[in-house]
Specification:
With 212 residues, this protein is α+β, with helices and mostly antiparallel strands. The protein has helices at 3-17, 22-104, 108-125, 132-154; strands at residues 157-159, 172-178, 188-193, 196-198, 201-204, 206-211. It has a three-stranded antiparallel beta sheet. It has a three-stranded mixed beta sheet with strand order 2-6-3, with no helix packed on it. A hairpin with a 2-residue loop joins β4 (196-198) and β5. α3 packs antiparallel against α4. The longest helix has 83 residues, at 22-104. The radius of gyration is 54 Å and the shape is elongated. It is found in: Cytoplasm.
C-alpha cells in the first residue's frame, strides 16, 4: 500500500469513528484502490513506452553506424578503383608509345650495323685511280655506295650536315679545334666521320673539327 492509499484509509477510519456507515467506507476503499491501480497501470505503460523509445533509438544508432561503415567501404573501393584505372591507363599509354617507337625506329639496329661498311665505302671513294681498270672499279664502288645511301633514306635515315654548319653538340662531336680566319667562330671546318640520324633520333654524331 502506498502513501496515498494509507492517507485515504486513515481518513476513512476517522470518518468511520465519527459515525460513517461501514458499507460506504468499504465502497470508498474499493474506489480508492481502483484509482491507485489505474495510476500504477498508467505508470507501467509510460515506463514501457520509454523503454520502447530507448530501444528504437538504439536501433537507429546501430543503423546509422552501419550506414557510415558501408559508406566508408564504398569510398575506399572507389579510390582503389580509380588508382587501378590510372595505373592501367599509364601502362596502356607507355605500351602504345613503345609500340610507336618500335615501329618508327625499327631499322635502327640494321642501320647501325651498316655504318662501318658505309665508312669503308667512303674511304675507298677517296682513292684516286691511275688506270682505266681502277677507274671502273671505283665507279662500281660509288654505285654501290649510292644505292646503300638511297636505301637508308627510304627508311628515314640521312647524313648529318657538318662542314660549314654551326657546331651543335646534339649532332656534332668535336675532336679537334682550329683557328681559321676563313670561318666564323664555332663553325665546323672539317668532318672526320659522317654522322647519321634516323628521323628525329641521332644514331651517330658527326666527328668534326671546330673553329674557335
Amino acid at each position: 500500500m502506498n502513501n496515498r492509499t494509507k492517507e485515504t484509509t486513515d481518513q476513512l477510519k476517522e470518518q468511520t469513528n465519527g459515525g460513517v456507515d461501514e458499507t460506504s467506507t468499504v465502497e470508498t476503499l474499493e474506489e480508492t484502490d481502483g484509482v491507485v491501480n489505474e495510476t500504477e497501470e498508467v505508470g507501467q505503460a509510460e515506463s514501457q513506452v520509454n523503454e520502447e523509445d530507448s530501444s528504437k533509438e538504439e536501433v537507429v544508432d546501430e543503423t546509422a553506424l552501419k550506414i557510415s561503415e558501408l559508406e566508408k567501404k564504398v569510398d575506399e573501393s572507389e579510390n582503389r578503383y580509380l588508382r587501378l584505372y590510372a595505373d592501367f591507363e599509364n601502362f596502356r599509354r607507355r605500351a602504345q608509345l613503345e609500340r610507336e617507337a618500335s615501329e618508327k625506329y625499327k631499322s635502327q639496329s640494321l642501320i647501325t650495323n651498316l655504318l662501318p661498311a658505309i665508312d669503308n665505302f667512303e674511304r675507298a671513294l677517296q682513292f684516286e685511280p691511275n688506270d682505266e681498270q681502277a677507274i671502273a672499279l671505283l665507279e662500281g664502288v660509288r654505285m654501290v655506295y649510292r644505292n646503300i645511301i638511297d636505301a637508308l633514306k627510304q627508311e628515314g635515315a640521312e647524313q648529318i650536315e657538318a662542314v660549314g654548319q654551326e657546331f651543335d653538340p646534339n649532332f656534332h662531336q668535336a675532336v679537334m679545334q682550329t683557328n681559321d680566319a676563313e670561318y666564323g667562330s664555332n663553325i665546323v671546318v672539317e668532318e672526320f666521320q659522317k654522322g647519321y640520324k634516323l628521323k628525329d633520333r641521332v644514331i651517330r654524331p658527326s666527328m668534326v673539327k671546330v673553329n674557335q
